[in-house]
Amino acid sequence: MSETSHLAPGASTEGLRERKRRETRDRIAETALRLFLANGFEGTTLDVIAAESGISRRTFFSYFKSKDDILLFSQDVHWRAIYADLLKTSPDVPPLDAVRDIFVKHMARYSTEEMVAIDTLMRSSATLQSRKQAFYAEQEQVLFSQLCEVWRQPERRTALRMVAMVSMGAMRLTAQTWHEQPSPRKPMAKLLRETFESLKSEL
Fold first, then answer.
1. pTM for this model (two decimals)
2. If we measure between CA atoms, which residue out of 86, 99, 81, 129 comes closest to residue 199?
3. Which of 101, 104, 96, 176 is nearest to 136 (CA)?
4. Which stretches of sequence are listed as region Disordered (predicted)?
5. Is 40 left (phi over 0), alpha (psi -120 to 50) or beta?
6. Residue 105 to residue 103: CA distance in whole angstroms
7. Which of 102, 32, 109 lies closest to 74, judged by CA?
8. Among positive and negative, which fits the CA dihedral 48, 53, 56, 62?
9. Residue 181: which region, alpha, beta or left (left: phi > 0; alpha: psi -120 to 50)?
10. Domain residue ranges in the chain
């Protein structure tokens, strides 16, 4: 019996080469984020990231095109975890409630200090800020597709698209409101829940 024959249906059949590449990419991203938080975005060079990651500068460009790409990749990892939880949701739960609870749960994993540091990083590059807006638009499309995987009735698709739109809007508004708060800032998870509650009260 082959090694892969023991895998459950749908289990990953990731090969050794793919696994090593994924592990290297994750190591670069984790190293870079640590350096960004310690030394600032502009104060961290690609050469330092490569050296600390145990790779050459040339190898770095096999995984990422720029420092901006690293931060967006880190954000993408966060969103993939959100979608993994969403796919486990019972279709008996109202979609907007499910998205709210999952968004809030994942946001609550970060301390205010961590959120301040990440927010500062994401705003330290004009190019990154521009790309972040495009990233939000992409995530709205992905969120819609994941919602359709849980709530499969074709007649619900228009409503699910609206759930994706307003949910991402709530996330963006919360991030902006939180950034503009004076210290001490309210925890973003709490602010996000309040944003969703305000949204539901107007529906």
1. 0.81
2. 99
3. 176
4. 1-23
5. left
6. 6
7. 32
8. negative
9. beta
10. 14-64, 67-202
Q: Which one-letter DSSP state was computed for residue 153?
A: -
Superfamily for domain range 14-64: Homeodomain-like (1.10.10.60)
How far is residue 46's CA from residue 35's CA, in Å, rounded to a whole number?
A: 11
CATH 1.10.357.10 at 67-202, yes or no: yes
Are 52 and 87 contacting, i.e. CB atoms less than 8 angstroms apart? no
| Each residue's pLDDT tens digit, 153-194 | 999 999 999 999 999 999 999 999 998 988 888 899 999 999
Residue partners of 156: CB distance under 8 A and separation at least 6: none
Residue 95 near residue 151 (C-beta atoms within 8 A) = yes
Judge whether 167 and 103 are in contact, CB under 8 Å. Answer: yes
